[in-house]
Every structure is written in structure tokens, then in C-alpha cells.
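Q: What structure does this chain adopt?
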Amino acid sequence: MIRLAVVGDSLGLPRFSKGSDRVDLYHEDTYPERLRRRLRQAAASDVMLVNLCRHAQTSLHLVRGLATDVFLARPHIVIVELGLTDLWPARGRHVPPPFPDLADKDPWVEATDFHRNLDRFLGFCRDAMGSPPPGVVLVNLWEASPDQYARHPEALPRTRRYNTILGELAARHGAGLCDAAALCRELGPPALCGDGIHWTPAACDALAGRLCDLVLRQWNAGHGDAGPVSSLRAGPGPAPRCNHTQENAMATQRETVLQAIIDAEQEMFCALNTGEDQNTPEKIKPFRLGRWMSFSVLSDEVIDSYLLDLIQARKEGRNLMTEKYALMAGQIPAINVDPVIEDIVAAESAWMLELADKYPHVVSHGTDNAAYFRQYTACELQTYSSHTLELLLRDIEAARQAGLNLAEQRYDNFYTRIGKGSLRELEAAAAAA
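A:
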């Protein structure tokens, strides 16, 4: 079976005609579904399609959770069709921005950020998706109708600039590039629906045809005479089974990401040059439990972003554990002076003092402990990317507004996980002893 993941915007979804109840595009006419059928026929193999297209989806989604969805699908082929939502002028849009921090940005995702987001995702596909990694095909951006550019003239040069970025990234990462821009020009005005942006059923079928040929050529070229079906079957392991409820499935996905983070950190931990064997049960078990405790209260966006940080570090040959402990020992100068770090350290330190005051029999946080905690936290945060730090600060601010103490939640999670109950129960028992 060929597993295919399509990551895109509303071009890959069914839709109604604007302002009416008439259907412009049915599910069976969307380009991902057309591609699935074409691949099944051409490769004489079943095709499992994971359609991850969403309305108003941007490249920023790739580094805020979408990469994890792709990771969990374990695809053999990933098709990425994003960018038009990123670059389109924000003024006059009837759709709210997908993330609060985009509210004052026009466009929602600038060219430099578009490049960064896609570059990180392509590195993620190459370095974290198994061996061999999935084949990736980028779809470039077509030009909208003239009346759209009459209303939004800045969108046309942006489209061409973002297409240049897509071409450069495809060449750099060895990805395929589907020239949707050229195809749309070949098809002419009939390719576009009445809104002047989305494609007609015939145009979607033509795009699926181009993608099918490109996917098969890419795999044939990469695997010699093995043929597209056998080579695709040799890709990553089987996709994980879904649980029966959406809630359980989401919890399982989150735990999978947490374990991937801890696995990567354990690898770095075991490579520390301490003169001792770090890879022993006595050291690994508390290490893994402590790291799980730290991340257990953070949002999916933060842990997804940090997983990408770890993958990027591995790609660059960096050991974040070595850097953290070298910073603590004063062996290297600061590697990240983002002012956000001090804000996060201050918040976490205040929570720990509050926790020690509330649970004095369970949590010890004297002067020496407090100083060590601040140093450890600051040095660890220096190994995070600015993007992860920004998301972490947002988590902290949201917790403050809700009157929550994330340190307390961490300890609760820790003691519950090891079967000792909550902090409140432990404090009551200790006080009564």
C-alpha cells in the first residue's frame, strides 16, 4: 500500500460557490482524491490518502502542529501545497487569522518566515520520518484572475517571490516541484472558478495528473529498477493504529511526540562526555521521567516546535545537553540572549517559590535550590529556538491569566504518573506524619 499525505489549503477541499448553495467542487473532484485514484491505477496498488488540507492553512501551521500530523501518518509521499494564504493581503479578509499573533500582520506570513517554515519542515521530513525518508513534492503557486490582482496588486509580485523560494527549497532538499503556475497558464481562464482563485474540477484533474507523473518519476529515479510500488512499500513502518475516540487518539499522538522528544534528548544525554556511562537504567529512568514531567504541561504547539529544534540540532551536529551543561559550568559564552528567556525564568521561579510555600513538606526550594533552578532553567532555554521560546512565553502568559501554576501541574503529573497521588494528598500525609 502507498501512503500519501497531502498538506495544503482549501484548494484540496470540496467547496460551495461563493455566496450560494451551489457546489463548485465535490470531494471526488478534489485534486488529492483524483491523485489517489490515478496513483492506484498507475501503480496497481492500494493508496491510503491522508488529506491534511485545511481552509486558511499557512506554512506556519507546519511548525505549529501540522508536522506532527504528518509524522504520525507515516507517509511514503508528502505533497505540500501552501503559500497563497501566507502571502495574500490581510486587509478586507472575511476569515480571521489562524493564530492570534498574526492579527496585526499583513501578509500573515512574510517571505522570510515562509522560507524558514518550509525549510524546517523539509528538514523534519528528511531527518525524522524514518529511513528511507518520504518523498516530498512541493506545489508552486498559480496566478489568480486579473480582477483579483486589480483589487490586490501586491499579491502578484509576492506570488512570484514565494515561487522562487519554493524552487530554491526544492533544489536544496531534493524535493520534487510541481509547476502549478505553468499548468494554470496552459489551461487559461477556464482553469479558475468564479472566485478567480480556486480551480475547476477539470483543472484539479490536470493537476492530479501532473502530480501523479512527478511522484512516479521521482520514485523510479530514486529506486532504480525496483519500480514505484515495491520501492514505496519499503518506506517507513506501518502507520500507528487510531484509538476508538478522538480524545484518546489526540492523547496518543501527544504522547508519541513527547516520547520522540525524550528519545532525542536521551541520545544527547548518553553522549555527554562525563567520564561515566550515562546509559544505565539508574540514570535513564529518572532522566526520562524528569523530562516527561517538564514537558507534560506545555501546549502541543510548544512541544511540536521543540521537536523541530531537536531535529535541526541533530542536523547541525549539535548536542543540546552538552551545550546546556557547558553553559552552566561557564565553559562557553551565552549562545542565546533572547530577552524572553529572563521573562520565562522569572515566571517559573515565582511558581516554584509559591509551590514551596504551599507544599513545604513535599517541595524544597531554599536559597541554594532557587539559585540552581534559575541557572539550570536559563541555560536550558538558551538551547531553544526563538520560535519555541515565543510559544513557551505564550503558554506561561495564558497560565497566569487563568490563575494556574504550571510548576504545580508538573509535580501533580509526576506523582500521579508514579502512582503516589496528587501534591495535595502527599502534603496532607506528610504534615500528619
